[in-house]
Specification:
mainly beta, 19 strands, 55% strand, Porin, 8% helix, globular, 346 residues
Length: 346
């Protein structure tokens, strides 16, 4: 195999392994990352199915999400590579990415209407294993978002729920650090790099995105529901990322009176911020009513780019009263596992 096709293949594999970096942020502890569902959401997440907005209890919601996602052994390999050990480069090529995510949210839900203000911050790094000049690149992206939507049954007792959501987003992007190249043959020079490459605050580029989402849920039979969502219906270029519509379908089954099983999958692969790489995901989750005031959600999500994929599991504990909802979510991972908390008061 010639050097050029080999290089192209290596770079493709490195990009493909980055699939989990661009997973949707599970705002308000409501989504597959924490055992929930996007198609059959709890109605709190403004990035989920707007047809489910009517499921959210009336109140004001506060949300916080934080954590790292890394390829296996990425942190330890980076520490060894920082010392200039060329023996670590082949292994780092199989663990080339890391991302730190932090998000905040405030929303109001009433009578199927949802109004939300959210902010997401992403710090990401990617090692490109070029056999001639390997490099390490970092990218920071933030988004401030206003979402206005509504959804629910068309009338009392209807078996069909529909909804739409409008998102106005202000994106910012910039470099965390300048790319580091080969200093001498066979060794990377990270001498001037920060000890934690996921610490970055600067952004130099700004852009706006206006997005329209829609969703539908149909009660096909007693305890059997079919759902469909479409997000970013209007295509948009944000720098090197081409945002196109993504469609997702799901099936939910009631398992007795206390449990619900949800199965869902994206129907097409699309690019999403902050990187120009197509992604597609499938998920399965189980919601179990522990008591009248508590519920446990567990689930697993598999995210794929071409033939490369990653699987992650998560869980959420919900406690509800007539005037309060508290949700604590946790997703398995390395270093600083993804975690989330949501508080609702009315």
């Amino acid at each position: 195999m010639t050097a050029k096709p080999l290089l192209a293949r290596i770079v493709f594999v490195a990009s493909a392994v980055c699939a989990p970096l661009w997973a949707q942020t599970p705002l308000f502890t409501d989504g597959p990352a924490f055992g929930g569902s996007k198609v059959f959401s709890e109605g709190m997440n403004p990035l989920a199915n707007p047809a489910r907005f009517g499921q959210a209890p009336t109140g004001y919601y506060f949300s916080f999400v934080d954590g790292d996602q890394r390829a296996q052994d990425n942190k330890s390999l980076l520490a060894a590579t920082t010392g200039g050990d060329p023996a670590t480069l082949p292994a780092l090529a199989n663990a080339p990415w890391a991302q730190r995510t932090r998000a905040y949210g405030l929303s109001s839900a009433k009578n199927g209407a949802n109004l939300a203000l959210t902010r997401e911050e992403f710090n990401s790094m990617l090692f490109t294993p070029d056999p001639v000049a390997p490099s390490m690149d970092g990218r920071r992206a933030t988004v401030d978002r206003l979402s206005v939507g509504g959804g629910g049954p068309a009338q009392q007792g209807s078996t069909t729920a529909m909804g739409v959501n409008l998102r106005v987003e202000r994106w910012a992007a910039g470099e965390i650090f300048q790319p580091y190249k080969l200093a001498t043959p066979g060794a990377l020079n990270f001498a001037s790099a920060e000890s934690d490459m996921l610490n970055g605050t600067g952004t130099s580029n700004r852009s706006w995105n206006l997005a329209l989402d829609a969703g539908l849920v149909l009660e096909m039979a007693q305890g059997v529901r079919l759902g469909v969502t479409a997000d970013q219906i209007n295509p948009k270029h944000l720098w090197d990322v081409y945002l196109q519509p993504q469609f997702r379908a799901g099936l939910q089954l009631d398992l007795g009176q206390l449990a619900k099983l949800s199965l869902e999958s994206d129907l097409n692969s699309v690019e999403r911020m902050p990187f120009p790489v197509k992604q597609q995901a499938s998920a399965a989750s189980l919601r179990f009513g522990v008591s009248s005031a508590a519920a446990l959600l567990v689930g697993v999500e598999r995210r794929k780019i071409e033939d490369a994929s990653v699987t992650r599991a998560g869980a959420t504990l919900q406690i509800r009263t007539s005037s309060l909802l508290l949700a604590i979510g946790f997703q398995a991972g390395q270093d600083r596992p993804m975690k989330s908390a949501t508080l609702m008061v009315n």
